[in-house]
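Task card 7
Instruction: Convert sequence to structure tokens.
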Amino acid sequence: MKKTEVKIDDILSAKSEEELTKPFLGKVEKIYENSALLKIIDFDEADETAVSDLNEKIVVNFKNLKAAPKRKIKEIQAKAKSDVKVEKIAKAKKTTDDADKESK
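Output:
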């Protein structure tokens, strides 16, 4: 892959020649002259310890990067979505006891 093809926040398939044994997916955080800093977002279980040791970040040469399969990106995005719902909570009215405490 060429430097001009790599953009911040792209999700790319990568391989490491030294640290990780299997290919992985990473999100581009920073672009250097010949390489990119990736946040490792999907990896083989065999590399779990190495990924942890790397604090989930790795610098990879552009020659070891390629576009990630779209189905894999969709799979990761589906995992990332949460079912958390945010609701407003009505403010409770101050009681006379609370007002007395604040005035002291």
